Amino acid sequence: MKKLLFFALALSALHAGFIKSPEEAIADRYGPECRVSKKPVLLNNEAFGRVQAEAPMKLESKIFTFYVIEKGGQTVAHAALQTTMIRSKKQTSLVFISPKGSIESIEILAFYEPGEYLPDPKWLALFEDKKSSDPIQPKRDLPNLTGATLSANTTARQAKTALLVWQEVFGHP
């Protein structure tokens, strides 16, 4: 019985699961004094077409969730919340985008695949300063994650899509 319990606990540890909420990730990055507002975004048909033409994945919806992060009355960043299926389980990421339209960081908020496929922070840091015009593809523009190719591809697609939607919504005057 003890062996069965140990095996069950060990197996459950292999899955990362829920890691943190968007609000916790934002507070960790910008401090608890930042003002955060959730902004649902609905792309019109024209904007959706432009994003879909450039996006590295088929978009399932015209609706996206962004967070506007402010300090001292100034917008310091936007954060795009995205959930995508990897194999048969989901990954939720928060892509932090600067007011100039470049990635500041990416935080994995939930990951239900086995934990060894979870992209590590050093690899996620390679996305910093990437813009919507930059190529972002593992094996070509970024090193691949050995043994976690699907997770790497999913993260890269989420990042690129977040940048493209940000450009449509916040990047135009």
Structure characteristics:
173 residues; alpha+beta; 6-stranded antiparallel beta sheet; 6 strands; 32% helix; globular
Strand percentage lies at: 25-35%
Q: Overall 3D geometry?
A: globular
* Helix-strand pattern: HEHEHEEEEHH
Helix content percent band: 25-40%
Please characterize this protein's 3D structure:
It is a single chain. The chain contains 5 helices and 6 strands. The chain has 173 residues and is of the alpha+beta class. It has a 6-stranded antiparallel beta sheet with strand order 1-6-5-4-3-2, with helices on both faces. A hairpin with a 5-residue loop joins β5 (90-97) and β6. The longest helix has 21 residues, at 149-169. It is globular. Residues 1-14 have low confidence and may be disordered.
Summarize it.
The chain is built from five helices and six strands.
